[in-house]
Amino acid sequence: MHSSRDPRIAIVGAGPGGLTCARILQQHGRSVTVLEREASADARPQGGTLDLHADTGQAALRAAGLLDRFEALARPEGDEWRVLDFADAALLAHQGPGADGGRPEIDRGQLRGLLLDSLTAGTVRWDRAVTGVTPLADGTCRLHFRDGTTEDFDLVVGADGAWSRVRPALSQAVPRYTGVTFVETGFDHCDTRHPDLARLVGNGSMLAKGAGRSLVAQRNSNGHIRAYIALRAPEDWHVAAGVDLGDRRAVRTHLLTLFDDWDESLRSILRNSDSGFVNRSLFVLPTPHTWEHVPGVTLLGDAAHLMPPVGQGANLAMLDGADLARALVSEAGVDDAVRAYESIMLPRSTEAATGSAQGLDHLVPAQAVRAGSSAASPAG
C-alpha cells in the first residue's frame, strides 16, 4: 500500500464535482486518476445551462484557480428571471441579473471543458466503465471494470451521478421518482428564427406555472434556448397516453392537449421547437441520505445527495469536490480526510435537499398559480 503522502486516488465520473476535486488535488501536487465510462469528452451533449452561486460553485472554482477563466465564459445577464401568467403571458414578476448576489450562467459543456482543460494530460481515462466497488480489509478499495479487470486504490470517490456504481459500497439507498417529469426540447438561432420566444424569455429564464404543469425556457450560449415542459405525472405517463417518445409529432400533439388552456404564445414553445423531445423523469435520494463511514470509499455530488434540479446540484457537487480535495491535502491521512469531509458534506446536503424539494413544489405546483415570484432554476 502507498504511504498516506502518496495515496492512490480514483475518482469515478468526469462531471463537474469529480473534475473539481481532481484539479485541486493536482494543484497541490497530488496524483489522481479520473475514470469515465463515456468514450470521449464529446461523446454526448452535456445538457443545458447552470447558474453558479458565489458561495458554492464559484467558491469551488476560486479554490481551483479557475474563477477568472469561468468569468470569461459566463453570462452574467443570464441570471435574469421572468415569471409569466400561463393564461395570458402577462409578466407577473421580474428579477434582474445580480438580484441574488450574482449567479452567472454557463453552459454545462463549457464548464466541463474548462475543468478538463485544467487537468494534466492523461488524468481522465475515457471508456473505463466501473461496475462495482469492493472495500478491502486493509482499508483500500477494489474497483471492478466492465472489461472484467480490477484495480486497487487507497481511496475511491464516487462522483458517478444518480445511478452510481460506487454508492452500494456505502449505502443501500436507491433513487425514487419524484412524481415530476421534465420533457426537454430546444430552439436554435432564437433571435432571428424565433424572435417572439426570444422576447418572452429575455436574457435569462422564463417560467409559467399552471396546475401540475409548468413551462421553463432558458437562454444558452450561441442563440440557443432550451425549454422544459414540467409535468406532475406517473413515470410512465407516455405509456398510459399511448405516445411513442420517439415520435416527435405524437409527443407534440399530446403535450399541446395538456396545455390547451394556456396562452398561445406559450403553447408555441410546444408547437415550434427545432429539436425532438427528451423525457427526463426526476429522481431523488432519501433525505437525509447518510451512511456509516467505510475506509477507502466516499461519495460526492448526485451520487451522495441526488435532489431535484432546481439550481443546487452542480454547485454542491463542485463544493463537495473542493472540500474533499482540501481535506486530502491538509489532513494527516486519507481516512482522517474522508471523515472530515463527510462531517461537513452530509449535514450540508440534507439541508440543501430539503430546500430543493420545496423548490420543486414551487416550480411545479399542484394547484394553479396566478401570482408570481421568481423560482429556482431548473438546471442545477
For the record, the CATH class of the largest domain is: Alpha Beta
Ends apart, CA distance between termini: 38 Å
Note poorly predicted spans: 371-380
Strand order of the largest sheet: 5-4-13-14-15-12-16
Largest sheet: 7 strands, mixed
What does this structure look like?
Residues 9-351 form the FAD-binding domain. Keywords: Cytoplasm, FAD, Flavoprotein, Monooxygenase, NADP, Nucleotide-binding, Oxidoreductase. Belongs to the aromatic-ring hydroxylase family. TetX subfamily. Pfam families: FAD_binding_3. Monomer. This protein is an alpha/beta fold and 380 residues long. It has 2 domains: 9-79 and 102-174 and 285-362, FAD/NAD(P)-binding domain; 177-284, D-Amino Acid Oxidase, Chain A, domain 2. It is 32% helix and 23% strand. The protein has 12 helices and 17 strands. It has helices spanning 16-27, 57-63, 67-73, 108-117, 190-193, 195-201, 237-240, 248-258, 264-271, 302-305, 313-330, 334-363; strands at 9-12, 33-35, 49-51, 81-85, 91-95, 105-107, 124-125, 130-135, 141-145, 150-153, 155-158, 176-187, 205-210, 213-219, 225-232, 278-284, 297-299. The strands form 4 sheets. Strands 5-4-13-14-15-12-16 form a 7-stranded mixed beta sheet, with helices on one face. Helix 1 (16-27) runs parallel beside helix 4 (108-117), helix 2 runs parallel beside helix 11 and helix 11 packs antiparallel against helix 12. The chain is globular and about 65 Å long. The two termini are 38 Å apart. 47% of the residues are buried.
Keywords for this entry:
380 residues; alpha/beta; FAD/NAD(P)-binding domain; D-Amino Acid Oxidase, Chain A, domain 2; five-stranded parallel sheet; 12 helices; 17 strands
